[in-house]
Each structure stands twice: as C-alpha cells, then as structure tokens.
Design brief:
Rossmann fold; 381 residues; 2 domains; alpha/beta; 12 helices; single chain; six-stranded parallel beta sheet; 13 strands; globular; seven-stranded parallel beta sheet
C-alpha cells in the first residue's frame, strides 16, 4: 500500500494529537501520505512539518444550518483537490460530514471511528428534542451505517446501540477498544507505597455532569462531614458549551469548597496520577475512557461506574471498584472502603497495570487499526 493517501478528520486537533498521534506515525512509517483536517489549535504545530494539516472551520456544538453547510462544503473541496484513497473520521460530526465529502468525491475506503455514544442517544431525550433525535439517527443510518464504510466501535454496547439504529446488524463493523495507552510513558517513577500524608483523590475529566462530577462531590461532602480527611483534585476544565455543563451558581459553590483543588487542564497528567491515592471517574457513559487507561497504567486503584467504556477497564474487586451509575451512596461507600484499606488499594493498582499491559497497549491497538487498512481491498470490498 505504498504512496496511498489518507485523510484523517476530527473536530479538534487536540483529539488527534492526544489519541491518534502514534497511529498517524504508524501510517507514515508504512508509506501512507497523511493529511489531517481539523480546527487549528495549540496542538496543531505539534504534528510537525511531515504531515499536511488543513484548518477546518467547524464548531463542534453548533446546530446552525448555514455554518454547518459551509463546513461540509469546505470538506468537499478539500477532498476534491487531494483525492484521498482513504478517509478516516473521528467524532460524530466528522463521521457525518466526512462521509458526505467522501461520497461526493467517490473515496473508496471510508472508516468511521465512533469515539462514544453520540448525543442523539444520550442527551436528546426530552420530548421537544425527539424530532431532532429522529433526524440525526436517520442521517447516521443512511450516511454512516451504509454498506460502503467500515465502522469502528470502542465497546460492544455502542455497537449494539448502532445496530438498533440500523435496524439490523451492521455489515462492516468491528470493535477496537479505544486508542490504547503508552505503558512505557505512563509508569511509576518509584514504587507506590501507602501514603501517610493527606490522601488525594483525582478526577481526570472535563468538569461536566455527564462525567459524574456532581455525584462525586456529593459523595465527598458526605465523607468530609463524617470527618474523613482527603483532598479532591479536579484535573479538567468547565466545558460551558457542553449540553451537560454546570450553572454558574453550581460552579461557584464548588469553588468555595476548601477540600477541592482545581488543577485545570493538564497537558502532562502523568505526575497527577503518580501523586494520587485513588482515581475516581463516575461517568454516565464513555467510548473507552483514556483517563482510566492511563490511571490503570500508573497503578492507580480506580472507582468507576458500571457503564460502557468504564466497566471495560475495571474488573470489580480485582483492580478497582465498580458502582451503579448516578448512585451517590454507593460511590461514597466505595471511596470510604479504599480510604480505609490502603494495602488493598496498592494491590488493585498493581493488578490494574497488568490488565493494561495485557489488553490495552498502544502498540496492540494500533496493530488492530493498521490491519483494517491492510484488509480493506480483500475483506471489506
């Protein structure tokens, strides 16, 4: 497959750099010509000059028809001028708009990578939004889940949900569990021991309701009221454009809590994992949580929820604790249990890294994706 041209599209440069940079380097090493299409941000320059990068005017939260048509038209023009052999899309808008551009330009090999369950199935359940949900699901069914593109899912639950949208089993679909984690980078610099200092709990995610932050803070408040002494570190930012964002009053209340430390977005989160005693992500749903993969690779004991993309990383009672989603009482008891059992927490952490090295290394995941490229002509067409 020498000299084949590949276009990769996402709604942020951040996503492609943090989740797919090693895949991009693998494609280049195999002789593919790589073109990236994404909005310019501070991560764009990190790709280097070896990769062609085209700025995409897209607002990931916009529903304005006029601006969305412009974004699609830009992709159609880029595809026409570059004539790619492969088109690989990440995130729902990129999958829809990239598929449209690919059809207009007769791109033969199309991959749609579903990074989680799209908002049509999670946040558009209010009565007045049901027509929008129906329209979006119809678009997904006709444009993405057609007979021409290969659809990659990060967990079986998401694949099952999309099969329901399709109304039957998707013909060209497979599961590749996330983006993997670099276990040589995400490893402890010194053995983890039982800390005699004030315990630190890390929440490594965007500060939105869908990540379970409200339940986490409620659980911690109950423990602080009972006299437990620990610090909650929030490694993320408030995403005010998100449909699941907090109100200004809620944010103000969080900030007044002396037991909560706001770390903001951390480019290199490795140190935060190493300094943490417990990692908690009570998310409502994930594709496959990159944060949990990294935390597990760093031998952190994990508390998470029994939902797709989280339960895939944690084996309950072996490398962490799984609790029911949106259950404050269960979450409080899980945190309390690990605070009171530090030796068991260390054991969970060691088991967590073993699982990551066995199932989720970047090299393993990239090999699965590269095989899709190699198998395209013979297996999928």
């Amino acid at each position: 497959m020498q000299n084949k041209k590949v276009i990769l599209i996402s709604n942020t440069s951040w996503y492609l750099y943090n989740f797919k940079f090693k895949l991009i380097k693998s494609l280049i090493a195999k002789g593919y010509k790589v073109i990236i299409i994404a909005p310019f941000d501070k991560y764009t320059k990190l790709f280097g000059k070896q990769i062609d990068f085209i700025n995409w005017n897209i607002n990931r939260k916009s529903l304005n028809p006029f601006s969305e048509i412009i974004s699609i038209y830009q992709l159609i023009k880029v595809y026409k001028s570059n004539k790619p052999d492969y088109s690989h899309h990440f995130t729902i808008k990129a999958c829809i708009y990239g598929s449209i551009a690919a059809k207009f330009n007769n791109v033969k090999y199309v991959l749609n990578a579903h990074t989680g369950l799209c908002s049509s199935l999670t946040t558009l359940n209010k009565f007045y939004l049901l027509p929008l949900k129906w329209i979006l699901n119809t678009i997904i069914k006709l444009l993405i889940l057609d007979e021409n593109s290969v659809n990659i899912f990060q967990n079986k639950d998401d694949l099952d949900e999309y099969n329901k949208i399709k109304g039957k089993q998707i013909n060209k679909a497979l599961i590749i569990p996330g983006s993997g984690v670099d276990t040589e980078f995400f490893k402890l610099t010194k053995p983890r021991v039982v800390s005699k200092l004030k315990k630190k709990i890390l929440f490594p995610a965007r500060l939105i309701k869908e990540k379970g932050l409200k339940e986490l803070i409620s659980s911690c408040n109950l423990l602080w009221e009972e006299g437990y002494n620990f610090q909650l570190n929030l490694a993320g930012i408030f995403d005010i454009q998100n449909n699941s964002s907090f109100s200004k009053n809620e944010i103000k209340t969080f900030r007044f809590n002396p037991n909560i430390s706001f770390l903001g977005h951390i480019d290199n989160i490795k140190d935060a994992y190493e300094e943490s005693d417990i990692v908690v992500l009570p998310s409502w749903r994930e594709g496959l949580s990159k944060s949990l993969l990294e935390a597990a690779s760093m031998e952190c004991p994990i508390i998470t929820t029994n939902v797709p993309g989280c339960k895939d990383v944690v084996d309950h009672g072996i490398n962490g604790i799984i609790v029911p989603v949106r259950n404050v009482s269960a979450l409080k008891l899980a945190i309390q249990f690990l605070l009171l059992n530090p030796e068991l927490s260390l054991k969970f952490g060691k088991n967590a890294r073993k699982k990551i090295k066995r199932e989720f290394t970047t090299s393993k995941i990239n090999k699965l994706t590269m095989k899709v490229y190699e198998d395209f002509p013979s297996k999928y067409y």
